[in-house]
Specification:
Cupredoxin; membrane; copper ion binding; six-stranded mixed sheet; Immunoglobulin-like; single chain; cytochrome-c oxidase activity; alpha+beta; binds dinuclear copper ion
Length: 155
Amino acid sequence: MDLPRSERIWLMIGGASLVVFFAIILLMALVWGFHNPGQMKTIAPDAVRTTPPFDKPGLYQVGPNEYRAVMIAQMFMYQPNNVTVPAGSTVHFEVTSPDVVHGFEIPGTNVNLMVVPGHITEYTATFRNKMDRVIVCNEYCGSGHQVMLGRFVVQ
Ligand code: CUA
């Protein structure tokens, strides 16, 4: 190619800025990319029961087919222990723990969360089909781990 010197310099600057751009993206991915984005909100574990919305755990309707499930995972139960929604509902789960790490899995769905004290785990899922499932704690949390079960019903 027979380009003037100034053109070549500008092409090099353009190419170099692309390299820098991708390097920044890569660096950001390395620094922040391994966090679970659902665990970015924080809460003091000691204050879970007095901090809204966890002072009133439960299922709240927020739209025509939309619910907010505010839940506490604790040794060795879920609060509320039973969540029932109509088929076609979108549920925004907000779960936290006042003690140790727990799991929150609804088998056969995309809901498989890790609940870490100090953090609020958020996840949204839509349930089109009727089901009656056990909510399972899949993180070992102590002597009652295997009996830490809840119930999730889509009717
Ligand atoms: Cu909670 Cu295992």
